[in-house]
Specification:
By secondary structure, the chain is mainly α. The protein folds into two domains: about 80 residues, Winged helix-like DNA-binding domain superfamily/Winged helix DNA-binding domain (Arc Repressor Mutant, subunit A, Orthogonal Bundle), CATH 1.10.10; about 50 residues, no CATH class. The protein contains eight helices and five strands, in the order ααβααββαααβαβ. Strands 1-3-2 form a three-stranded antiparallel sheet. The radius of gyration is 16 Å and the shape is globular. The termini are far apart.
Length: about 150
């Protein structure tokens, strides 16, 4: 299993501090599990998660729904898709991370990819790191281009 860096600032934020202990466990699982991808979207059924964490499946479903309702994750039960919305803010911004994110997004349903791009656009992530997402958003074809930084 690859090494994963997690910035621990997420644990001191009000939404996370106010979670029930099993919700924190599921949230942490979302950050570090072996299904995770560069963009923070992965597929795992509640039963798979329950087995990994030795938790009752009913509790896993309850926690996933609670985290979804709070807006901390997007959970799509019909496809066992989970997007940990703050995932990439907990990761180091190494040079190839955005290329990896865009590559991973190309594998997602267009509607989810557009929601993902819009979410991080609202946080200013693409602009801050000089990533042009306009082509992806306008055309529906996931082909963003990394812009070179001007010196």
């Amino acid at each position: 299993m690859p090494f994963r860096y997690i910035n621990d600032h997420c644990w001191v934020t009000a939404p996370i501090q106010s979670l029930r202990h099993w919700d924190k466990c599921i949230y942490q699982y979302g950050l570090i599990n072996h299904h995770q991808n560069a963009h923070g979207i992965f597929r795992a059924s509640p039963l798979d998660i329950a087995k990994d964490l030795d938790m009752p499946p009913k509790q896993v479903k309850s926690s996933l729904q609670h985290l979804h309702d709070l807006g901390l994750i997007k959970w799509i039960p019909s496809t066992d898709t989970i997007w940990v919305k703050e995932y990439i803010t907990t990761q180091p911004k190494y040079n190839n991370i955005f290329t990896a994110i865009i590559t991973a997004l190309r594998q997602e349903p267009l509607e989810l990819a557009q929601e993902y791009v819009a979410y991080y656009n609202d946080l200013g992530l693409w602009k801050k790191h000089k990533i042009d997402i306009s082509e992806f958003v306008k055309s529906g074809a996931p082909k963003p281009k990394l812009q070179k930084k001007k010196h």
